[in-house]
Fold this sequence. Notes:
By secondary structure, this protein is mainly beta.
Amino acid sequence: xxxxxxxxxxxxxxxxxxxxxxxxxxxxxxxxxxxxxxxxxxxxxxxxxxxxxxxxxxxxxxxxxxxxxxxxxxxxxxxxxx
Length: 82
């Protein structure tokens, strides 16, 4: 069920709010991954920072899609050599 909620938020570029280890967190979700150990992770950017952070699925509860808050992914642009 979590995967479906996150996938929908990623597809429609909706911000989400959830509890992560009992701390309320709002992020811009980017993608979901699964490691070799079988643990699932959600990667997303906290709006007040420029870093993408990893969140473990098993520690995420009370998920809410913030339908009125959309975002555009931050794409780092570097100077290209001529």
